[in-house]
Design goal:
The structure holds 2 protein chains of 2 kinds. Chain A contains 11 helices and no strands. Chain A is mostly helical. The radius of gyration of chain A is 19 Å and the shape is globular. Classes of the chains: A mainly alpha, B alpha/beta.
């Protein structure tokens, strides 16, 4: 593992972000709009729903958590797609950078991207809606950690597809999160889902994360089992997708995708 | 003379299509080897395998005596590549791109290396300009700087002067000649510009349909095939390979 190379790849994206005000604005704009919208929806539900009436901000907190997941996953994909769009893909893969170093660098850069967008959005929630995500306490860290790992997992999964199938896989990159969102039980309890969907949902870490966020905010209690299950599932999925990324890289070398992908 | 690159019985199949068929060649230290052939002859596939972007179906590639399949990262530190079909990140300045690639190649004392390349390739006025806004000639010199940032011992060039005006093309060719002399590096040059190949290359490989159909020094090839220049030899070989087997 070479930290200079990891830093080099990080620097490539750091320069890209910091050179362009519209890019920074773009990172901040969407999460802020999203959170503001859900803030008003949350206020409405809090005053009209018996389920939510004791916990103003449950929906908004879940919206913030989901947005963090979304930004992390999309952020990772964007970093990978950026190399394809700029026709720099070949340059990257002929540099002596290991796959593990690419993954680590993109994981770290995706976090920075997600935080650039999310921190202003979180800061907005307090003056606008009187809600603080910090109400989740110390467990907020573990929920964010789980979401971050799952976001990265999805990012690596999509990037594996891009490596294997080339830019034609790009559309999938945008739709992964939307495909999984219904099973994540972000805004509703798992009981709402049909039984077959519940079985699928229980295989994903998302349901444990969002169920636990609601549990903490509504019942003022903590079920550590949910937090541990989410983390364990995340580690399993992350390990599988990293293996898949290596596998896709080898297939791409056999099929020639790496040489044609940016052309 | 020492062989920096050895290619032995190299094959690459895409499914049932044989893109490269059992080719062998070497590139000596301080040598520029020309790789000629019509589109689809297997040149890019061969370069892809030399860069570790493609896994050979069979055969071996050794760079400085090390097998690329077993030492990919180690070997990539010593080689580099330019092609008009790949670009540097367009939104970054020239200096930022050179710093990024300096880091990716783990270059010690990046500043000195960049200063050296800036002087040699006349990039001082371009350093703080955005790469995507440069002319094709300027981009070409920047890509060349990136390709030399790691002080490679083996340089792979795919059409290095394509789409350049004659003056810039001549500057690049002169630079490559001088740089090779100074650093004693090995260069593989894939080009469709026969004048360029005649000027730069000590020896030439002619490829067609994935095979090497002839090889030798340009003057010998011209004489052997009874033609006036390398371009005529290229056309003759491209049109009928069996005639010369």
């Amino acid at each position: 593992m070479n930290f200079t190379r990891i830093y080099g790849l990080f620097l490539r994206h750091f320069y890209l972000i910091t050179r362009s005000f519209p890019r920074i604005l773009d990172l901040i704009y969407w999460p802020s709009i999203q959170i503001t919208l859900w803030g008003f929806i949350s206020n409405f539900f809090a005053s009209h729903s018996t389920y939510y009436n004791n916990a103003v901000g449950v929906i908004l907190t879940c919206a913030i958590l989901y947005d963090f997941l979304f930004r992390t996953s999309i952020g990772f994909n964007m970093l990978f797609l950026e190399e394809i769009w700029s026709r720099n893909f070949t340059n990257l893969f002929i540099a002596p950078i290991k796959i593990s170093e690419i993954i680590i660098s993109l994981i770290f850069t995706a976090l920075i991207r997600a935080l650039i967008g999310l921190i202003p959005a979180i800061l907005l929630t307090s003056p606008l809606f009187g809600i603080s995500i910090l109400d989740l306490g110390i467990y907020l860290f573990f929920l964010f950690l789980s979401l971050y790992i799952f976001g990265i997992t999805l990012g690596i999964l999509v990037s594996s597809g891009l490596l294997r199938f080339g830019p034609s896989f790009e559309n999938i990159a945008w739709s992964t999160m939307f495909l999984l969102a219904p099973f994540g039980c972000i805004y509703y309890p798992i009981e709402i889902l049909p039984e077959i969907f519940q079985k699928i949902a229980y295989c994903l870490p998302l349901v444990y994360i969002f169920e636990e966020a609601r549990n903490i905010l509504i019942n003022n209690s903590v079920n550590l089992e949910n937090i541990f299950t989410a983390l364990i599932l995340n580690i399993v999925y992350l390990s599988i997708t990293i293996s898949l990324f290596y596998f896709s890289f080898n297939i791409a070398r056999k099929k020639g995708t790496l040489i044609n992908i940016g052309e | 003379m020492e062989n920096l690159v050895e290619v032995k019985n190299l094959k690459k199949n895409y499914g049932s299509k044989e893109a490269v068929k059992n080719i062998s060649f070497t590139i000596k230290k301080d040598e520029i080897l020309g790789l000629l052939g019509p589109n689809g002859s297997g040149k890019t596939t061969t370069i892809g395998m030399l860069l570790g972007l493609l896994k050979p179906t069979d055969g071996q590639i050794l760079i400085e005596g090390k097998k690329i399949e077993e030492n990919r990262i180690e070997i990539l530190k010593k080689i580099n590549f330019i092609s008009p079909y790949i670009e540097l990140p367009k939104k970054l300045t020239v200096k930022q791109n050179l710093i990024v690639y300096g880091k990716l190649y783990n270059v010690l004392n990046i500043k000195n290396r960049i200063d050296y390349l800036v002087e040699k390739l006349r990039l001082s006025d371009l350093l703080n300009r955005v790469t995507g806004e440069l002319s094709s000639g300027q981009k070409n010199r920047v890509s060349l700087a990136k390709a030399l940032v790691n002080n490679p011992t083996v340089l792979l060039l795919d059409e290095p002067t394509a789409s350049l005006d004659p003056e810039i093309g001549d500057f690049v060719r002169t630079f490559l000649e001088n740089y090779k002399k100074e650093k004693k590096i090995s260069i593989l040059l894939a080009s469709h510009n026969m004048n360029e190949v005649t000027r730069l290359c000590k020896s030439v490989l002619m490829m067609k349909d994935g095979e090497i159909i002839d090889k030798g020094i340009p003057e010998d090839l011209i004489e052997r095939h009874g033609r006036k220049n390398l371009e005529e030899v290229f056309l003759k070989l491209s049109r009928n390979k069996n005639e010369f087997h």
